[in-house]
Amino acid sequence: MFEVFVSKIELDEIGSYESFGIRAALDNDVIEISDVSVSKERILLFVEKLNRFDASPIHLYDFIQDAIGIEL
Fold first, then answer.
1. How many domains, the chain?
2. CA-CA distances (angstroms) from residue 66 to 12, 23, 24, 36?
3. For the segment 3-43, what is each residue's pLDDT rounded down to a tens digit?
4. Containing domain of residue 28, as a range?
5. Is the whole model's pTM more than 0.85, yes or no?
6. Residue 20 · residue 4 · CB < 8 Å
């Protein structure tokens, strides 16, 4: 099951901002990718789809890359 988490990111160039990431359990490990989106609504919708379609956490990087169209 995938879930959303929030992080406070600080960069010298732009200051601080709130960003959302995705976390999922895989066997005895936890996969966590931070700073995926600054849009809470967008990330919640994305995670809801991952859970609805029972996506495998092993492909989380690929799912994110496909969803936002960039290489991680």
1. 1
2. 29, 17, 18, 12
3. 999 999 999 999 999 999 999 998 899 999 999 999 999 99
4. 2-68
5. yes
6. yes
